[in-house]
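Practice problem: DNA-binding response regulator, LuxR family
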Amino acid sequence: MAVNGLTVFIVDDDPDVCDALAALLRAEGFVVETYLSGPDFLASVKPEQHGCLILDINLPLISGLDLQQILTERGFNLPIIFLTGFGDVPKSTAAFKGGAVDFLEKPVDADVLIPAIRNALALSYQRHEEKSRQHELDALYANLTPREKEILVYLARGYSAKQVGKALGISHRTAEIHRARIMEKLGVQSLADLVALAIQMGIR
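Answer key — structure tokens:
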């Protein structure tokens, strides 16, 4: 079963391979796009698109490894499954160092490929969710005033309002007001939730 909203991109210079893989994956319910070269793929797919990439490592024009590097430089976050026509340990090592999630030898068996794709799509979905959550956290943090950001650091360390006031040279009451405003802006109801959210933001 496919993961909704995610696409399996195939880049292979052999049209027969593209057609065969596409037919297999579509029969399994996956959304598939095929490309015969790296430049074709780069011209059509945007960094914000999500899914995974099945990539022939021995492409002409732009090799699979070079395309992997270009995608990283351009901000793509697609998990890559490399395909090769023959075992190539040096290239597989380079591929994994570049962030590939799998390296399979042609002709690849469906029982091997499909689980690999499902794992890659699950990883893509996880990365997308984490990125979306980080954007939400960044937006919440940006809504705080400089003073509130300063106070949040102390609250994240477990300081009480009284301790915050003493540390910053402000009254206990003023510290409480700031704390209440911070909690309201961040949408939390308890100090425990506030501390947990601050940790997610990377505040210690």
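Discussion: The domain at 143-200 is CATH 1.10.10.10 (Arc Repressor Mutant, subunit A). Students who identified this feature from the tokens alone can consider the problem solved.
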